[in-house]
């Protein structure tokens, strides 16, 4: 009888300690700002080094295909034609399929003419995955800047 009473008391005090610890965690979180935002009515401004949709400058590309070789899945498609008079390649078309791209940034890093750059654009949802295959015209479109988006409500997380 005495043993069972002791065991009951021990278990009750242990349970009370766990409940107290749980309350401390709850109190700790009550002091913090909210992490979630009401997307799409609120949007976060991506950080400076955010790796979003790739931007491509057609006129700067020399069709060297370095971007293809450094891509883990050889993704960029570079269509070019050799010009015998000028003795150099002429770029005809360029495309990247964002349905397969992992946004590693290798192509941007190694491009010798800096014609590729990563934007802060991340809203790329489509109903047909084939629409994610961007040609050089789609890649050349300037990114929508989150800061000038009328939908953007500044986030308390970023302190703005
Ligand atoms: S690495 Fe740059 S310059 Fe070379 S083909 Fe790719 S995008 Fe064009
Ligand atoms: S970001 Fe990475 S995966 Fe995407 S095209 Fe460039 S190298 Fe390939």
TrEMBL record:
<keyword id="KW-0618">Plastoquinone</keyword>
<comment type="function">
    <text>NDH shuttles electrons from NAD(P)H:plastoquinone, via FMN and iron-sulfur (Fe-S) centers, to quinones in the photosynthetic chain and possibly in a chloroplast respiratory chain. The immediate electron acceptor for the enzyme in this species is believed to be plastoquinone. Couples the redox reaction to proton translocation, and thus conserves the redox energy in a proton gradient.</text>
</comment>
<keyword id="KW-0004">4Fe-4S</keyword>
<comment type="subunit">
    <text>NDH is composed of at least 16 different subunits, 5 of which are encoded in the nucleus.</text>
</comment>
<feature type="binding site">
    <location>
        <position position="101"/>
    </location>
    <ligand>
        <name>[4Fe-4S] cluster 2</name>
    </ligand>
</feature>
<keyword id="KW-0874">Quinone</keyword>
<dbReference type="InterPro" id="IPR004497">
    <property type="entry name" value="NDHI"/>
</dbReference>
<comment type="similarity">
    <text>Belongs to the complex I 23 kDa subunit family.</text>
</comment>
<keyword id="KW-0479">Metal-binding</keyword>
<dbReference type="Pfam" id="PF12838">
    <property type="entry name" value="Fer4_7"/>
</dbReference>
<feature type="domain" description="4Fe-4S ferredoxin-type">
    <location>
        <begin position="52"/>
        <end position="81"/>
    </location>
</feature>
<dbReference type="GO" id="GO:0009535">
    <property type="term" value="C:chloroplast thylakoid membrane"/>
</dbReference>
<dbReference type="GO" id="GO:0016655">
    <property type="term" value="F:oxidoreductase activity, acting on NAD(P)H, quinone or similar compound as acceptor"/>
</dbReference>
<feature type="binding site">
    <location>
        <position position="67"/>
    </location>
    <ligand>
        <name>[4Fe-4S] cluster 1</name>
    </ligand>
</feature>
<keyword id="KW-0677">Repeat</keyword>
<feature type="domain" description="4Fe-4S ferredoxin-type">
    <location>
        <begin position="92"/>
        <end position="121"/>
    </location>
</feature>
<dbReference type="InterPro" id="IPR017896">
    <property type="entry name" value="4Fe4S_Fe-S-bd"/>
</dbReference>
<keyword id="KW-0150">Chloroplast</keyword>
<dbReference type="GO" id="GO:0019684">
    <property type="term" value="P:photosynthesis, light reaction"/>
</dbReference>
<feature type="binding site">
    <location>
        <position position="64"/>
    </location>
    <ligand>
        <name>[4Fe-4S] cluster 1</name>
    </ligand>
</feature>
<keyword id="KW-0793">Thylakoid</keyword>
<dbReference type="GO" id="GO:0048038">
    <property type="term" value="F:quinone binding"/>
</dbReference>
<feature type="binding site">
    <location>
        <position position="111"/>
    </location>
    <ligand>
        <name>[4Fe-4S] cluster 1</name>
    </ligand>
</feature>
<dbReference type="GO" id="GO:0008137">
    <property type="term" value="F:NADH dehydrogenase (ubiquinone) activity"/>
</dbReference>
<keyword id="KW-0408">Iron</keyword>
<dbReference type="InterPro" id="IPR017900">
    <property type="entry name" value="4Fe4S_Fe_S_CS"/>
</dbReference>
<keyword id="KW-0411">Iron-sulfur</keyword>
<dbReference type="InterPro" id="IPR010226">
    <property type="entry name" value="NADH_quinone_OxRdtase_chainI"/>
</dbReference>
<feature type="binding site">
    <location>
        <position position="61"/>
    </location>
    <ligand>
        <name>[4Fe-4S] cluster 1</name>
    </ligand>
</feature>
<feature type="binding site">
    <location>
        <position position="107"/>
    </location>
    <ligand>
        <name>[4Fe-4S] cluster 2</name>
    </ligand>
</feature>
<dbReference type="GO" id="GO:0051539">
    <property type="term" value="F:4 iron, 4 sulfur cluster binding"/>
</dbReference>
<protein>
    <recommendedName>
        <fullName>NAD(P)H-quinone oxidoreductase subunit I, chloroplastic</fullName>
        <ecNumber>7.1.1.-</ecNumber>
    </recommendedName>
</protein>
<feature type="binding site">
    <location>
        <position position="104"/>
    </location>
    <ligand>
        <name>[4Fe-4S] cluster 2</name>
    </ligand>
</feature>
<dbReference type="GO" id="GO:0005506">
    <property type="term" value="F:iron ion binding"/>
</dbReference>
<keyword id="KW-0472">Membrane</keyword>
<keyword id="KW-0520">NAD</keyword>
<keyword id="KW-0934">Plastid</keyword>
<keyword id="KW-1278">Translocase</keyword>
<feature type="binding site">
    <location>
        <position position="71"/>
    </location>
    <ligand>
        <name>[4Fe-4S] cluster 2</name>
    </ligand>
</feature>
<keyword id="KW-0521">NADP</keyword>
